[in-house]
Design a protein that fits this description.
Helices cover 29% and strands 18% of the residues. The protein has helices spanning 3-14, 97-106, 121-124, 164-179, 195-200, 202-208, 250-260, 301-310, 324-332, 367-380, 406-409, 411-415, 419-428, 436-450; strands at residues 45-47, 50-51, 63-67, 72-76, 80-84, 89-93, 110-112, 130-135, 146-147, 152-156, 187-191, 214-215, 223-225, 228-230, 286-290, 314-318, 336-340, 356-361, 384-389. One of its GO terms (molecular function) is pentosyltransferase activity.
Length: 452
């Protein structure tokens, strides 16, 4: 199985709302460079799943459309842009006679699903598509019923929204990368809107925009702007920002989070070497155990807590929920966070600088995707990363299958039976009973890092 497909299958699918069968990729198209100008390209779709390069748009119209690995987006500046929900169309009206003449020979359109996981056909099924269409003034276009003086960003809350991991990697981080440059003077035009999502992340939404969100799907009005971004800019890696293509970095994003949620702890504790016989003056590093009560839960939490306290940790146990403010404060107060692989580990974004993330990797061939999801992103967040891969005897699977079963002998054969089978066995039905003597080495390594 291709490594990249395996990764997207494990993560984009494991948190989906419905059964899923096959992961597909959209085309990866680069920009057409125009001499003496910047990239001004329209890429028409022959169908919602198909992209081909089209004719360049005249530079006078100041439009940049790009098709990148994870997302398609258009930046339209200084034009008459009309958003019509009834027809799912973003009209760009030519602003001069010269533009009209240019458009007569160069008119083309682009269909965009404004959600940044375009290669995943399952995710995109719940994302409304919008036609970005340049038109001439003589054409019949809907008249403006509401005109706005600030730019807009049109994006979707469809896809895998509602899962904490996808909320951050598919929406929040790309939205930050796209919107931060406007310093609040931008309106969010949301398609596939979920009011509960807006409420959950209201701190971040209000930090990025000074205006109320427009639920465009329920609008009768034609909303008109002079500048619109359709879609979100996203780095190809998970939970990351590409600083070569953005004005910001993950360091900037994490500072933004601390400001939005009033998080006080900037750096993790640095343990000073002191007299081991005198514990009175020591500050104990704080360890957070991220609990899971449904799948991939720790079965011997009390034993883990006792061992960690004996090593010198102050221990806290908490489960992530919909109260982002509460859990962000808990995570930010800690120096080390540990948990079994899953969406709850996304809260690593709230850890202080130089903190340590310990990912407990379930049995069954998920090492590579698990590390890609959380291990690799930790580097740009200035978080030290450790992982602990459990053995078969630490898995609850030993209670469900005989020792010579393919589940233990050959996880690859299970994966070949399809994603649903693999997910049901290794993610949905597996809990963890940590070997505390073996895991102790990992917690000691974390203490060693906190001395550095």
């Amino acid at each position: 199985m291709d490594e990249k497909i395996t990764y997207d299958t494990f993560f984009a699918r494991s948190f989906s709302r419905s059964d899923q069968k096959k992961l597909g990729y959209g085309a990866f198209i680069g920009c057409l460079l125009i001499a003496l100008s910047f990239c001004l390209v329209f890429m028409p779709y022959s169908s919602p799943q198909s992209i081909r390069l089209g004719t360049s748009v005249p530079k006078r119209m100041n439009i940049v459309c790009k098709s990148e690995k994870r997302s398609d987006y258009c930046e339209i500046k200084g034009e008459d842009v009309r958003i019509d929900a009834k027809s799912s169309t973003v009209f760009i009206v030519a602003s001069s006679q010269q533009s009209i003449r240019d458009l007569e020979d160069n008119t083309t359109s682009l269909l965009i699903g404004p959600y940044s996981r375009k290669e995943d056909q399952i995710a995109m099924k719940s994302v409304r598509k919008w036609l970005v269409k340049p038109v001439m003034e003589s054409n019949v276009t809907p008249p403006c019923s509401q005109t706005h003086s600030v730019p807009a960003i049109l994006f979707s809350l469809g896809g895998y929204s509602g899962n904490n991991y996808h909320d951050f990697t598919d929406i929040i981080i790309p939205l930050y990368s796209t919107a931060r440059i406007f310093n609040g003077e931008v309106k969010f035009v949301v398609t596939n809107s979920n009011p509960w999502w807006i409420k959950k992340f209201r701190n971040l939404v209000q930090k990025l925009s000074n205006y109320e969100v427009i639920d465009i799907d329920n609008e009768e009005n034609i909303h008109c702007f002079t500048s619109v971004v359709v879609g979100l800019k996203r780095a190809p890696q998970e939970l990351s920002i590409d600083p070569s293509k953005s004005s910001y970095s993950m360091k900037d994003f994490r500072q933004f989070l601390r400001s939005a949620y009033s998080l006080n702890k900037v750096r993790a504790i640095k343990i000073e070497d002191e007299d081991d016989d005198d514990d009175d003056g020591k500050t104990r590093p704080r360890l957070l155990i991220v609990a899971r009560n449904r799948t991939r839960a720790f079965r011997n939490t009390d034993e883990i807590v006792g061992m960690a306290r004996n090593l010198g940790y102050e221990v806290r146990i908490a489960e992530a929920d919909g109260n982002i403010q509460r859990f962000a404060e808990i995570v930010n107060s800690c120096d080390v966070m540990m948990g079994v692989h899953g969406a709850g580990l996304t809260n690593m974004v709230f850890l202080p600088e130089n903190a340590i993330l310990i990912q407990v990797i379930p049995f069954g061939g998920v090492e590579w995707p698990a590390r890609a999801a959380f291990g690799e992103p930790s580097k740009d967040m200035n978080i030290r990363y450790l992982d602990y891969k459990i053995k078969a005897e630490e898995s609850s699977l030993i209670e469900q299958y005989p020792a010579d079963h393919e589940v233990f002998k050959n996880p690859l054969s299970i994966s070949k039976q399809g994603w649903l089978t693999f997910k049901a066995v290794y993610l949905d039905k597996q809990d963890v009973n940590l070997d505390t003597n073996r895991f102790k080495i990992t917690l000691l390594k974390a203490l060693e890092l906190l001395h550095q």
